[in-house]
Amino acid sequence: MQDRPDAVNLLETIQDLLIKDIMPAVKENDFLSYRALVSWNMLGVVAREFKLGEKYLNLELERLSKYLGEEKPNISLTYLEKMKLGEQLNKNLVEKIRKEKSDDTNKEVWELVKQSLKEKLEITNPRFSLD
Fold first, then answer.
1. Is residue 18 situated within a structural domain?
2. Domain span at residue 47?
3. Interatomic CA distance for residues 57 and 77, integer angstroms
4. DSSP symbols for 52-73
5. Looking at residue 127, what DSSP letter applies?
6. Which single residue of 22, 32, 37, 47 could bond 11 by disulfide (Cβ 3.0 to 4.6 Å)?
7. In this predicted model, what pLDDT tens digit does every residue of 40-81 receive, in sequence order?
8. Total Cβ atoms within 10 A of residue 94
9. What pTM was estimated for this model as a whole?
10. Which burial class, exposed, middle or buried, applies to 103 when counting CB atoms under 10 A from its CB (0-12, 13-18, 19+)?
11. What does the alpha-carbon distance between residue 116 and residue 130 come to, in Å, rounded to a whole number?
């Protein structure tokens, strides 16, 4: 790992280049403008994933494990292993919701899902709010 610039700094620098230099140069070309804007947005998602992804994933794994009555997740897992575990725990949650025929009146499930969604949106689209 390097000290400076880190991955987030690099991504933000590329975002800055796209918005300040590339976008004005391609503003007359709708196709290129759109692609530059999408690229700028994707770089932001990746930067926020670097900053917040593992923190929020750990919180989600903790919540899901607790609700499902499963063993507390191993914090020494790699990020990719945690992502796979998160996928499996979410599948288990879906099965439990279907089996118990839970709906939005089940406050515990609703709050669990809502909190996970808020955290995911903070990474993918921080301007969106569930409040």
1. yes
2. 7-124
3. 12
4. HHHHHHHHHHHHHHHHHTPPPP
5. T
6. 47
7. 999 999 999 999 999 999 999 999 999 999 988 887 899 999
8. 10
9. 0.82
10. exposed
11. 11
Tens of pLDDT, residue by residue over 13-23, are 999 999 999 99
Domain count, the chain: 1
Helix axes 79-100, 30-68, angle to 10 degrees: 70
Task: State how far the Cα of 57 lies from the Cα of 129, in Å rounded to an integer.
Answer: 19
**Cα Rg of the chain, angstroms:** 19
> Which helix H or strand E contains 12, and what residues bound it?
helix 7-17
Phi/psi at 127 (nearest 5 deg)? Answer: -80, -15
Report DSSP letters for 83-116, one per residue: HHHHHHHHHHHHHHHHHHT--TT-HHHHHHHHHH
CA–CA dist 73, 3 (Å, integer): 30
Pseudo-torsion of CA 123, 109, 73, 125, nearest 10°?
0
Asked, for residue 129, whether it belongs to a domain, the answer is no
Domain membership of residue 1 (yes or no) is no
Averaged over 125-130, what is the pLDDT?
80
Residue 66 lies in a domain: yes
